[in-house]
Amino acid sequence: MNVRIILKADFDEYFYEIKGFCRLAIQDCDNTITRHNMDYVFWKSDPASLMFKLYVKKSFEMLTLVYDEKNSLIGLAGVEPYNKDVALIGRRLFILSGYRKQQICHRYIIIPQIEYIKQKGYKLGIGTVNEYKKVIYNIIKRKIDQKSKYVYSNFELMKEPIFLNNTEQWVFGIYMDEKYKERTIKEWLCY
Prior knowledge:
CATH topology: Aminopeptidase
Number of helices: 6
CATH architecture: 3-Layer(aba) Sandwich
Low-confidence stretches: none
CATH class: Alpha Beta
Structural class: alpha+beta
Number of domains: 1
Shape: globular
CATH superfamily: Gcn5-related N-acetyltransferase (GNAT)
């Protein structure tokens, strides 16, 4: 696997590659919400789409691109500031189905994003998933319960979903330093 970390200033260089990936993601997915988030046709008028967030709103700071041994883009996710202290990690995360269950998410996407937000001075990184992708939340919960050595063992989970960005979301977070645990995840989000 090969990983590229690209910053906002370089997003334009990857436009056609990301657009092609969105096409593949839609073909690879049967979930309406995910298909909507990966829209590459009407993206200019669709605030929920990855491409709108990257190229119209320009809300992502960083994007992690994962390539296979043939140099084909097989997964991606972004970092989006929530406020000056909190960054949303794993935004619009998608890994093509043939590459899932290979630890790509945590090894090649989440770890580099945590390192990035720590370097940028954020105090908390949070990930959110809707009910459809709650399996991700459950995997993290299982890794925490098992006291796994994976990066997820350092995450904290909100026990109940909250409304965030107009959608009920399951939230998990990682503090960049123990001293920031003075506030709960919910308190940081409302700060």
